[in-house]
Amino acid sequence: MNKELLLTAGIHLLVAIVILGFILFVVMYMIWGLRRIMGFMQVRIGPNRLGWQGLLQTPADALKLLQKEDVIPKGADRWLFTIAPIIVFVPAYMVYVVMPFGDGLIAKDLNIGILYVSAITSIAVIGIVIAGWASNNKWSLLGAFRAAAQLVAYEVPMILALCVPVIFAGSLRMGGIIEAQEGGWFTNWFIFRGYGIPALAFLIYMAAGLAEVNHIPFDIMEAESELVAGFNVEYSGMKFALFFLEEFAAAFTICAIAVTLFFGGWHAPFPFLGENLTGIAKMAVSLFWFLAKTAVFVFVLMWIRATWPRVRVDQLMNFGWKVMIPMGLFILLAAGTVVTLGWVKL
Amino acid sequence: MLVQYLPFLILFIVAVAFSGGAILLSRLLGPKRPNPVKLAPYESGMVPIGGTRRPFHIRYYLVAMLFILFDIEIIFLYPWAVIYLTARAARLFLLLEMIVFLGVLMIGYIYIWRKGALDWE
After folding, report:
1. CA atoms of A81 and A301, how far apart (whole Å)
2. CB-closest option in A15, A228, A332 to B77
3. What is the mean pLDDT of chain A?
4. Nearest-neighbour CA in chain B from A94: distance (Å)
5. How many domains does one find in chain B?
6. B23 in a structural domain
């Protein structure tokens, strides 16, 4: 064990803890924001008592969940029942290794970044199926089967849509894709280039992403009104909190990846807004733009949640297999054609 | 060169430690007052009827199989998408190659559609 390796490990440990803190903070205030915003959209107030404007509500809820009795139902597979929340949480957190928070603010700019993201986010489904099966509950089992069917159906169009920015940028690296959208004005973002093909890819990505994080209108695996809560009905206390944490962290991930791939990542929309900075100031400004753009998408997600009804299971599956996959294949070929014909300046 | 994957190992350890620690802590802090009714699986307030681990519908197997086929084929698209930009001279060849590849995929896709494998009654 040499000294240099130990130092590197120490730095990475610090980064890992910062990322963990960031996720916990973001998720707490996403939950608070969701409850407040949905409250206002439905002409009610939402949590506003605990702390200023209810800001302490979610920390208090987390503390309450920590003190809840940890019930393991009779007949459940105790071991699998306990590790399922861990299997679900770990990939949702590990995606953040390649998350480009800002210029130079990326834990590890892996050269297979996009592939890594799509690979590791699909691990969560294993945990969900284990949770549903181990609970020894019919609702959980139904929810888990639905979850598996839905997640695998929407995985395919999602990966297809992710290929489009990769073609335009010629790189799987997060940093490389963001550099390809450099150049001052927001018209250099992929969403505004390539004759609307990336824009279509973005729509497919967002729809598939909503399905992947079981968000309304695709939250068929939780479906409060028909399955009670789906795969996590038997979970209580901190195990339930981990499922909740994963869901919101994954929703943030979907928005952040969308910003990275289609909306210029950490670049400012106008050239005169902090493009000539260096050092720490540049980092801070790029972090600000990344988080600001992501916050817009998170808000849109909450807006969708307050507005749309839930689709039926058969509609969901038919839409995934019969509409999204042909569309994904079509935009991929369209992107290839446009690049081959030299219609896009790259 | 495994050292460059050190961040992944460390994040994995931190993630497992955090989630495992949270579960352990909640086990230590929470009360333990089990009774037969509380431990029974939730079935809308009724006494559970029959076992849970029963065979399930074959369409789930079908979806899983189709997914594996599609996923493997789609993994082949990634190398293609990455080299597309740099391989300036070979782009036309690359495009035709991909049209052939996706054409074969499409034949299979239309076949399973016509056979009704994609229908969810």
Report:
1. 30
2. A332
3. 85
4. 6
5. 2
6. yes
